[in-house]
Amino acid sequence: MKKVLACLMVVCSLLAFGCSGRNAAFGVVDIKKVEAEAPAVKTIKEDLQKKAKELQEQMQKETAGKSREEAEKIVQDKSAQMQVASSEAQSKLKASLETALAEVSKEKNLSAVLIKDAVPSGGVDVTDEVIKKMK
């Protein structure tokens, strides 16, 4: 999930930065800090953990007393449901991050926002603003 978001942000930022001129201002964001502090990330993770626990409990109840083949089908079904829930959580997180980045970028008149770890020096740190805007 982290790698997908990081790659997406770098590609979008490079495209925007590359098209805007040499002296354009750019921002940087610390993804690790966003993941650790953003309320939206915490909420999404908690919801996903809750869903995983529910599916685990359902699986245990449904597989009790079943044959091996029936139990395997139930496990596969619950695993598929968990993958769907995980995918939905990633989509929510991505949308929240993209919205926050766009808002901060527009407010600060930045041509791009890059991942802080990928930038050796320079840039306006917008991490705290992104964390505040993530919903």
UniProtKB/TrEMBL annotation:
The record's section on Gene3D superfamilies has:
Skp domain
Signal is among the record's keywords: yes
Q: Where is the composition biased (Basic and acidic residues)?
A: 56-76
Q: Which GO terms describe its cellular component?
A: cytosol
Key word Signal present: yes
Q: Where is this region: Disordered?
A: 56-79
One of the record's GO molecular function terms: unfolded protein binding
Q: Of which family is this protein a member?
A: Belongs to the Skp family.
Write down what this protein is called.
Answer: Periplasmic chaperone for outer membrane proteins Skp
Give the source species: Succiniclasticum ruminis
